Amino acid sequence: MEKKKGQKLNAGQKQKRLERAEALKRRFADGRHPRILFTDEKFFTIEEAHNPQRDRIWADERPTEEELIVQRQMTPKGVMV
C-alpha cells in the first residue's frame, strides 16, 4: 500500500475548510475572478557579497594597504522585478 502525503485534519478543521471554500465559491460566482490581479516582487542582487575567506594573495612581497582594501557597500546593488 502506497503512503499518501497530506495534512491530517480533524473534523473541526475539515468543516472550516469546507466553509471557506463555499464562501470563495459564492464570492467569485458572478464572474469577478478575471479581474483579480496577482503581483509578486523579487529582489535580484547584482553585486555579490564579499567573503574574505575566498580571497588569497600569493606574492613574493607583502601587498600595500591599498591592494588589501576591498571596497563594498553595506547593501549590495540590485534590481527589483
Automatic annotation (TrEMBL):
InterPro entries for this protein: RNaseH_sf
Example of a GO MF term: nucleic acid binding
Source superkingdom: Eukaryota
Protein name: Uncharacterized protein
Organism, as annotated: Didymodactylos carnosus
Upper classification of the organism: Eukaryota, Metazoa, Spiralia, Gnathifera, Rotifera
